[in-house]
Design a protein that fits this description.
LacI/GalR-like_sensor, Rossmann fold, 12 helices, alpha/beta, 3 domains, 434 Repressor (Amino-terminal Domain), six-stranded parallel β-sheet, four-stranded parallel β-sheet, transcription regulation, Lambda_DNA-bd_dom_sf, repressor
Length: 320
Amino acid sequence: MGVTIHDVAAHAGVSVATASRALSGQRGVRQANRDKVVAAARELGYEPNVVAASLRSRTTHTIGMVVPRIGNPFFATLVEEVEKQLQGGNRSLLLANSDYQPEVERRQVQALLDRRVDALLLIPCHRERSEEALAAAAARIPVVQLDLRVDGFDASWVGVDNEAGMRELLGHLDARRTVFVGAEPTDSSAQSRLDGYRRAGAGDEVLLGDFSKEWGEKAAGRLLSEGLPEAVVCGNDVIALGVLAEFARRGVRVPQEVRVTGFDDIPYAELGQPALTTIRQPQAEIAAEAVRVLHDRLAGVETTSRRTAITPALVARSSG
């Protein structure tokens, strides 16, 4: 049988209640007694029963997070930044992947609720069909939507101003003819980037598929058969890298014959051939703000929902 809290209390010469309060960081324990308890726990190799402590305190010190696709470098980096922020508050992250399927997302959210996470960070995979999962979570625990959001749902959201980023990009290009290569607007970023492109007066030449390198390659082939524009504006960096790869395979010179831009500034963007001009999402800032809002909700400091749109920045490289 392992070392128990009773053993620690006896070794320190204090009551079990005092030992428990001292190890959980509660008030009402003299510093001398706290020091003795901590020293006794260290000497005996005491490991607290986290599950039992969670049942008593009704908190698990865990935050759930559901992302559309962990293999996407943008989401992977965002998860890393969120985890860094949570470490400062002694909370752990439980991560789940929806694979852009609302039904899978619903099951993943329910699984996290069953594990009694204290709160949820959700990147909803669909701007409409993710509402069921979001509502189920919001009815039980604090929820913050991150990066993507569900249309019209009253829950806090933290992300970037996609339309501002698109305006910045098009202003930089200052091209007479551009074509937008993006994703079907099933999620909020796909929709807002498409809207931003059109509202900036760039025209109606758009090709829509999904946020994948394969779609970028296919779209590049179509552009070559239909006639190259002055610039190709891509809905994200993964699409743009696919466009660059296909152009390179076909012998198209970038940026001499056509300019190519992305959106997000994933870690691989500067490794493109040539290095990709893009819009950088400040992921550390986004993660910090999302975790701050979540902590405020858990502490009862903030009870109303809010939307925070952070302005992204242009990163000009060789491709455009």
